[in-house]
Amino acid sequence: xxxxxxxxxxxxxxxxxxxxxxxxxxxxxxxxxxxxxxxxxxxxxxxxxxxxxxxxxxxxxxxxxxxxxxxxxxxxxxxxxxxxxxxxxxxxxxxxxxxxxxxxxxxxxxx
Length: 111
What we know:
Layout: E1 3-7, E2 10-12, E3 18-25, E4 34-39, E5 45-51, E6 57-59, E7 67-72, E8 77-82, E9 91-96, E10 105-109
Parallel strand pairs: 2-10
Antiparallel strand pairs: 1-3, 3-8, 4-5, 4-9, 5-6, 7-8, 9-10
Protein backbone atom coordinates (compact mmCIF):
# COMPACT_ATOMS: atom_id res chain seq x y z
CA UNK A 1 0.00 0.00 0.00
CA UNK A 2 1.11 3.52 -0.75
CA UNK A 3 1.79 5.43 2.45
CA UNK A 4 2.65 9.10 2.73
CA UNK A 5 3.05 10.67 6.13
CA UNK A 6 3.81 14.34 6.53
CA UNK A 7 5.31 15.74 9.73
CA UNK A 8 7.09 18.79 11.05
CA UNK A 9 4.24 21.24 11.27
CA UNK A 10 3.59 23.50 14.21
CA UNK A 11 3.04 27.02 15.43
CA UNK A 12 5.54 29.62 14.29
CA UNK A 13 5.68 33.40 14.36
CA UNK A 14 5.61 35.43 11.16
CA UNK A 15 9.07 35.50 9.64
CA UNK A 16 9.95 32.15 11.16
CA UNK A 17 10.90 28.87 9.52
CA UNK A 18 9.74 25.28 9.52
CA UNK A 19 10.91 22.16 7.74
CA UNK A 20 8.27 19.67 6.73
CA UNK A 21 9.14 16.03 6.09
CA UNK A 22 7.23 13.32 4.28
CA UNK A 23 7.96 9.62 4.67
CA UNK A 24 6.96 7.61 1.62
CA UNK A 25 6.58 3.86 1.22
CA UNK A 26 4.79 1.28 -0.90
CA UNK A 27 6.06 2.52 -4.27
CA UNK A 28 9.33 3.22 -6.07
CA UNK A 29 9.82 6.70 -4.68
CA UNK A 30 12.73 7.68 -6.95
CA UNK A 31 10.64 7.19 -10.09
CA UNK A 32 7.86 9.61 -9.19
CA UNK A 33 7.50 13.35 -9.16
CA UNK A 34 6.47 14.45 -5.67
CA UNK A 35 4.49 17.45 -4.57
CA UNK A 36 3.32 19.49 -1.64
CA UNK A 37 -0.20 20.89 -1.49
CA UNK A 38 -1.93 22.84 1.23
CA UNK A 39 -5.43 23.64 2.34
CA UNK A 40 -6.25 26.68 4.40
CA UNK A 41 -9.42 26.82 6.49
CA UNK A 42 -12.44 27.37 4.27
CA UNK A 43 -10.37 27.32 1.07
CA UNK A 44 -9.71 24.86 -1.73
CA UNK A 45 -6.65 22.67 -1.91
CA UNK A 46 -3.73 24.69 -3.32
CA UNK A 47 -0.65 23.33 -5.06
CA UNK A 48 2.58 24.53 -3.43
CA UNK A 49 5.52 22.84 -5.11
CA UNK A 50 6.67 19.87 -7.18
CA UNK A 51 9.99 18.12 -7.52
CA UNK A 52 10.41 15.95 -10.57
CA UNK A 53 12.64 13.17 -11.78
CA UNK A 54 15.39 14.26 -12.05
CA UNK A 55 15.13 16.98 -9.43
CA UNK A 56 13.53 19.79 -11.37
CA UNK A 57 11.54 22.03 -9.03
CA UNK A 58 8.55 24.29 -9.52
CA UNK A 59 6.77 26.56 -7.05
CA UNK A 60 3.54 28.45 -6.71
CA UNK A 61 4.10 32.18 -7.05
CA UNK A 62 2.90 32.67 -3.49
CA UNK A 63 5.83 30.69 -2.05
CA UNK A 64 8.56 31.22 -4.65
CA UNK A 65 11.77 32.46 -3.08
CA UNK A 66 10.66 31.43 0.43
CA UNK A 67 10.07 27.68 0.17
CA UNK A 68 12.47 24.98 -1.05
CA UNK A 69 11.42 21.46 -1.96
CA UNK A 70 13.90 18.60 -1.88
CA UNK A 71 14.02 14.83 -1.78
CA UNK A 72 16.22 11.99 -0.56
CA UNK A 73 15.75 8.99 -2.81
CA UNK A 74 17.80 6.75 -0.51
CA UNK A 75 15.64 7.44 2.54
CA UNK A 76 12.39 7.82 0.52
CA UNK A 77 11.85 11.22 2.07
CA UNK A 78 10.41 14.45 0.74
CA UNK A 79 11.07 17.81 2.39
CA UNK A 80 9.76 21.35 2.30
CA UNK A 81 11.91 24.06 3.86
CA UNK A 82 9.70 27.05 4.58
CA UNK A 83 11.33 30.39 5.41
CA UNK A 84 9.93 33.85 6.05
CA UNK A 85 6.55 32.37 6.87
CA UNK A 86 3.49 34.56 6.63
CA UNK A 87 0.06 34.24 8.28
CA UNK A 88 -1.39 33.36 4.89
CA UNK A 89 0.79 30.24 4.86
CA UNK A 90 -1.38 28.81 7.63
CA UNK A 91 -2.83 25.56 6.32
CA UNK A 92 -2.71 21.80 6.50
CA UNK A 93 0.17 20.69 4.30
CA UNK A 94 0.01 17.43 2.36
CA UNK A 95 2.67 15.50 0.50
CA UNK A 96 1.91 13.23 -2.39
CA UNK A 97 2.20 12.14 -5.96
CA UNK A 98 -0.13 13.02 -8.81
CA UNK A 99 -2.44 10.21 -7.69
CA UNK A 100 -1.92 9.86 -3.94
CA UNK A 101 -1.99 12.24 -1.01
CA UNK A 102 -1.21 11.32 2.56
CA UNK A 103 -2.26 12.69 5.90
CA UNK A 104 -1.31 16.28 6.39
CA UNK A 105 0.51 18.30 8.99
CA UNK A 106 -0.82 21.57 10.38
CA UNK A 107 1.21 24.74 9.96
CA UNK A 108 0.03 27.81 11.85
CA UNK A 109 1.75 31.15 11.41
CA UNK A 110 0.67 33.58 14.07
CA UNK A 111 2.07 36.04 16.57
